[in-house]
């Protein structure tokens, strides 16, 4: 049976970068079935909802999902439930994609792109594991109401619920330990247990899971300190595991340390290893359609998909090696361009990767 | 009537750095009354509680509070309600200190201390205004319970409530606009309104308050993007206003951009301008008692106190000028030392500031 890949290009630069990733996948010569559906604003335009049934169905039945990016200012005035971002939240929740893996790697050729000093970031290779289906992102109850109690009783108030159940913490902690074990053996769990009850349980459960992994060195860090340490000395980290909200903030911060977020892929996995793969950067509507977007994060996301969900590690290696080779050749899209290198557009970058394979 | 200053040295390096700040205040020749009480772990040791009644009473009746720092690993095993950090949370809540002002300023003499490239941070001068008495820090209900519903119903779960009422948002937004008006006229409100109901209300209310400040340029940014932009191009910001949780993370991140958090003061103000002043850094128990801690953040916190709560702007200027002068003289504590400067200890740094006044 051929493997089915759901391709969801989305908005902004999504379609352009996805196109190159699909070309790369096709060039591998494997017999995948690739099916495409709109998502985000594009799906709202086409079908009145950011995650229409046809899109969700395809994602459900596929072996893996390759996702571009969603969001555009033109949808800002829609009610929240219809905005493009709801598509990605819905996919995560509906598909049970609880484990988000976000590598922050600085390619030696791109060391100058970072806003940090070379000695602080050269050789950076950290992996942030963010829980993706729980926390304050989905916790009920939530809403806007008349405050029922407190000093401001009677006033209009917004409220949300942060929640983590023990099995949820346990399964993401396990992913953290398993992953750290395959890397440099260090896991840092980030929480705010000096203030939050949710974090206290988080810390207790992670500490408990650690007993099964005596070979992994576990540390705990408060989220505010983690945000500082990522700026001060990011290379102290190997794997970081944290909740949905803190992970949203820290994974973006960590990506930006490299200065080349246009290079960074991500994977969001369910219990069985099925996953959704997307670049770490956003939809960049300001440069959409200009043919200048960097397709490498999406191409590297396709490589992660080959490795984690499609069981084709050799093909993943091929793609990753090809990306390294185009960097070594000096080819750069505008976002990572510097003097002495060759500036190319989105399609030319895709061409170069295919050629390098 | 002489003004009463409550001095709460706390734990770790707290006592050493507070001592220098008190010497500086005394050297001004004003007739303050200075009273001291233990807080944090020191208070737990002395009186069985991190914020004993005598300490809270003094803080209440004082015109301003000068606070060192709290926390030490040796209290880690205490139950949460007795841990040193509860003292600072209790003081904020009991005294209604809802507006936390955290400048992140890079002194030209210390540009090398930053882990960021000089061109990215030179001249950095941003102010983070963090709401300090609401949000998930204090929201009820919270606790550890058996999950009442959801996929993990029946499992043990931790939960917390994020809450902001309209008047709470309105008053901190006003502080944001008033402060931006006195600076470069730019206010960035940070939220996560694409996901959180609390943030949606936050954004709506800030947008409404903006009508009273047509001269201030307001922008909105998601917290994940703010964490990225602070790394990428921090100088784009003037004043940032945000909630308690996001402010905790972003203000620490912003401080660390300078590489010299040992220089950064903070103020936490109530409705009437009364405030608690403390260094932005922590209690650093690893270097406590060695006489090497940097007292300048605490001395500059005393200067903020003179300006905001004690109505002595000229004296505040004197202290700040003296700090600049000791930096210009090349004096440095270990945390900001670099080759070609003169390394001094805590007391010698205090001496130098007093001499420079
Ligand atoms: C678009 C938004 C809802 C989303 C999130 O907050 O999870 C995004 O920031 C991300 O990290 O993928
Ligand atoms: C000690 C802790 C409770 C406190 C906070 O989270 O507010 C600290 O991190 C701070 O920012 O002052």
TrEMBL record, chains A, B:
Record localization: Cytoplasm
Coiled-coil parts of chain: none
Bound cofactor: record note: Binds 1 Mg(2+) or Mn(2+) ion per subunit.
SUPFAM superfamilies referenced in this protein's UniProt entry, alphabetically: Isocitrate/Isopropylmalate dehydrogenase-like
EC number from the UniProt entry: 1.1.1.85
Subunit architecture: Homodimer.
Pfam families: Iso_dh (PF00180)
Catalytic activity reported: (2R,3S)-3-isopropylmalate + NAD(+) = 4-methyl-2-oxopentanoate + CO2 + NADH
Residues noted as binding Mg(2+) in the record, renumbered to the chain: 224, 248, 252
Family matches, as SMART domains: Iso_dh
Pathway(s) where this gene product acts: Amino-acid biosynthesis; L-leucine biosynthesis; L-leucine from 3-methyl-2-oxobutanoate: step 3/4
Sequence similarity: Belongs to the isocitrate and isopropylmalate dehydrogenases family. LeuB type 1 subfamily.
Identification of the protein by name: 3-isopropylmalate dehydrogenase
Binding site for substrate: 92, 102, 130, 224
Source organism: Pigmentiphaga soli
Principal location: cytoplasm
Chain positions of site Important for catalysis: 137, 192
């Amino acid at each position: 049976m051929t493997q089915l890949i759901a391709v969801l290009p989305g908005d902004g630069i999504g379609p352009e970068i996805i196109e190159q990733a699909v070309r790369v996948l096709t060039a591998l010569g494997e017999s995948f079935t690739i099916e495409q559906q709109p998502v985000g604003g594009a799906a709202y335009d086409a079908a009145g909802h950011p995650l229409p049934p046809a899109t969700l169905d395809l994602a459900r039945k596929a072996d893996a999902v390759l996702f571009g990016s969603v969001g555009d200012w033109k949808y800002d005035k829609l009610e929240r439930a219809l905005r493009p971002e709801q598509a990605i939240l819905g996919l995560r929740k509906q598909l049970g994609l609880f484990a988000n893996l976000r590598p922050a790697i600085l390619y030696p050729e791109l060391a100058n792109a970072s806003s940090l000093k070379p000695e602080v970031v050269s050789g950076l290779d950290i992996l942030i594991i963010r829980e993706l289906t729980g926390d304050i992102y989905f916790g009920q109850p939530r809403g806007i109401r008349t405050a029922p109690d407190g000093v401001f009783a009677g006033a209009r108030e917004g409220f949300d619920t942060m929640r983590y159940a023990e099995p949820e913490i346990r399964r993401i902690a396990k992913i953290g330990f398993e992953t750290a074990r395959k890397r440099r053996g260090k896991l840092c769990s980030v929480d705010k247990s000096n203030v939050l009850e949710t974090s206290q349980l988080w810390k207790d459960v992670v500490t408990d899971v650690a007993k099964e992994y005596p070979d992994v060195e576990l540390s705990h860090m408060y989220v505010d300190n983690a945000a500082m340490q990522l700026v001060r000395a990011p290379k102290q980290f190997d794997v970081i595991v944290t909740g949905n909200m803190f992970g949203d903030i820290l994974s973006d911060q960590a990506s930006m340390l490299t200065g080349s977020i246009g290079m960074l892929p991500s994977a969001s996995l369910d219990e069985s290893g099925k996953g959704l793969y997307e670049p770490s950067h956003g939809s960049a509507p300001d440069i959409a359609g200009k043919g200048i977007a960097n397709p490498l994060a999406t191409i590297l996301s396709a490589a992660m998909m080959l490795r984690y969900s499609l069981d084709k590690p050799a093909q993943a290696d091929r793609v990753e090696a090809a990306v390294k080779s185009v960097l070594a050749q000096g080819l750069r899209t505008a976002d990572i361009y510097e003097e002495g290198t060759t500036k190319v557009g989105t399609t030319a970058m895709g061409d170069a990767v295919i050629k390098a394979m």
